[in-house]
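Entry 14. Structure prediction run on the chain below.
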Amino acid sequence: MIFVTGGAGFIGANFVLDWLAHCDEPVLNLDLLTYAGNLENLARLAGDARHVFVQGDICDAALLARLFARHQPRAVAHFAAESHVDRSILGPGEFVRANIEGTFCLLEAARAYWARLPAAEARAFRFHHVSTDEVYGSLRPEAPPFTEQSPHAPNSPYSASKAASDHLARAWHRTYGLPVTISHCSNNYGPFQFPEKLIPFMILAALADRPLPLYGDGAQARDWLHVSDHCAAIRRILVAGQAGETYDIGGASERTNQEVVRHICALLDRLRPRADGRSHAERIVHVTDRPGHDRRYAIEAGKITRELGWQPAETFASGLEKTVRWYLDHPEWIANAQSGAYREWIARQYGTTA
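Output returned:
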């Protein structure tokens, strides 16, 4: 069995589904079900004995000890995190608690469990920590992409909390010998992504004929990684990754935010045109940039390709069209995700209603 934290969220749920689609090894899934955790993401696993779901907090040390003792996992895949930069600016405390304290509690529970394993099982055990390229800070336009040797230089409460959790994971390997691997991914997109993030936010705003607010000049650049490619990379790390190593995972799809939104608009012009026949892109508006907004992220994913044989299967064009079609085909999921709390947050952040 593997132990997945945050497995009802966007990336975690996609990973659980991907894992069980590729093998029969059961998954213990722990998620607190905060605003972005959604059991609908896992609806196709209803009645599947390979999926054991527990609602709970990774900061609950007693719960973690019971779960390790009862289920005896051979690996941990740690996705649970607060992950939205805008929310971290408005309320950094939750990010410190979830991302730093939560990772500490999980590392300690895993270490206590691992220390009691027979030698062969202890050698085979893995603790995989899922992180972000945002810990590296912001790149100049002419700079080469981030690599595993890039220094941590976080600029937001979110990325600072993730950088701290990276340092904890590394330290638990170096100090205690816990077999840790770490990955840093670029911006994910795909099915089940909570609609506060750029791509689903813009899709849903366009479908509702609302303004499409771009921060600043919209020239902030990101590398985009389809979530299915990210899941495949983590599966590969759990199989063949070396303890103590870090792997950067990128989609080789660097785009500015404005390019991304215009691509979404072009797809919707074809797949769901406006009633008046005008382009969705006419609804793009530029709004005041957020504090500390990183200008550019880019990932050089050569190490995981060379050492583990992984590379992305989706291009940005193919992945984005699949994503847009998924949101068009799942209106009930969208309606349920857009709760009152989400609507209040959108109104506070952008001065509009969802």
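The mean pLDDT is 94.
Filed with the rest of this week's runs.
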